[in-house]
Known about the structure:
Structural class: mainly beta
Low-confidence stretches: none
Helix content: under 10%
Radius of gyration: 28 Å
Number of strands: 35
Distance between the termini: 88 Å
Shape: globular
Amino acid sequence: MKLNLKYITIAAVAFYVAVIVVWHLSAPSQDFKMQEPGADNRPAGTARKADDVVIGEYFMDYKEQAPQDMQGVWGNFRGPNHDNIVTSPLTLAAKGAYDVVWEQETGEGHASPAIANGRVFVLDYNEQQSSDALRCFNLVTGKELWRRWYRVPMKRNHGFSRTIPAVYDGRVVTIGPEGHVMCCETETGDLCWTMDMKKLFATEIPFWYTGQCPLIDDGVLVLAPAGTDTLMVGVDVKTGEQLWATPNTPQFKMSHSSVIPMTLQGQRTYVYIGVGGVCGVSAEAADRGKLLWSVSKWQPSVVAPSPMQLSANQVFLVAGYGAGGAMLQVNKSGSTWSAEIKDSYKADKGMSSEQQTPILYKGLCYTILPKDGGGMRERIAIYNPSNLHSPVWTSSADERFGLGPYMIIDNRFFAFKEDGELYTYEIAGSSMRLLSKQRVMEEGIDAWGPMAYADGYLLVRDSKFVKCIKIGN
C-alpha cells in the first residue's frame, strides 16, 4: 500500500511538471485583434480633468431624521442681517464649561456651516475622492442626513473649502473652491441647478481658492464672478436663470471678499471689494445690476474681509498683508453717483483686520487686530467710528486670538482663538468683561472659519473638525 502511494505521488508530480514545461515552451496564438478604446463600454473611472467637472453628480442619503420644530436660522455668511450679531434672547448655560454635544471630522479647510430649521450645511472637500461635498447634518445629534458631491481635482493650499452656504426658501446654494455653484433642495438634497463661473464668465479663481460666500437677496442669488465681461450677476434661486448682469467696466478680478447688501444714500446697494478696487451695484428693482460707482484708489493685492457699513454714506474697508484700513465715502448728486477714499492707513495705525470682518454694534466697532497691528496685534479692540485710529478698549496682553472668528450674541462677545479656545465676554458700554474661557479643540489648528449660531447651539471649526457647543436655551 505504501509502495503504491509512492508511485502515485511520483506520477502526479511528473505530470504537472510536464504540463508546466509544455506551457512555457508553447508559442501562443498570433490571432489577436486590436480593440478600439471604449469599445468595451467600461464605465468612466475616477480620473477627472478640472474642466470636466460634473457638478452635483453623486448623492448619498443616510436615512437619518432631521430635528422637528426648530426655527433658528443662520442661513448665510454673517447671519440674517449680514452683521454677525444675534439679537434673540439667550439664557447662557451655567458659568464655566459649555457642553460639546457633537463633532464631525472634515477635509482640511475653513468652510463654516449655515443653519436652517435644525439642519446644518457644510461645504467640505474629500481629498481621497478629490471631491467637493455638500454635507447636511442634524443640528442636535450631528448625524449626517445626506451628502451631494462631485469630483474636482485640486492641490492643497492652506486647505481647500472656504465658503459658507446660503439657504433660502427650501434651497441651499454653495460655491466650491474652483468657482462651481450648486443649488440643492434643503430637505432631500435633490440637485436643482448648477453653474461653472470659470466656464461661463472666464473668472480667474484667487490663489487660495474661492472665498466669496453666496448672497441670496429676496430670491435672487448675487454673485461677483469678476470675469472678463461680467462683474456681478443676479440668478433666480428657483430656476438658475440669469436675471441681470453688471458689465465689468472697472476690470476688477475676483477676491476672497463677499458681496454685502447696504442702503447707501437711500439706495439699496451691493458693495463688493474686488482685486482692483471697490464698487457699488444697484439692488433696487428699477435698475438692479446697474454699476453706480467704483473706486480704484484703494486696491490691496489680497483681501478677505468684506466691507462694513458705518453710516448712510460711509463704508469701512479692511484687508491684511499690510494693507490696513480705509474709509470710503459714497456721494450722490441728483442721479450722479461718486465715491472717494477719505482716509487710509497701515494696520498698526488704526482699526484693521486680516481675515475676519469687523462688527458694528451699538455705535461701536469691534475687531481683532492682525499680526502686523503693532503692540496690540491679535488682541480684541473696540473703536468709536469717529476715531478709528485709537481704540477705546483692548483685551489684555495675554488674550490674543490670531485669525480667529468672533460674533455677538445677546450682548455677549464670543471670540474663538485660532488654536480652538472659546472666550466669552460681557459687553458693558465701551468695554468688556471676561466671563469664561474654554478649550474646545484639543489640538486646534487654524480655527479661522466664522462661527454660526441657532437655537442655543454654537458651531465652530478648525482646519479638520466642526464642533457643536450647547451654550444656552
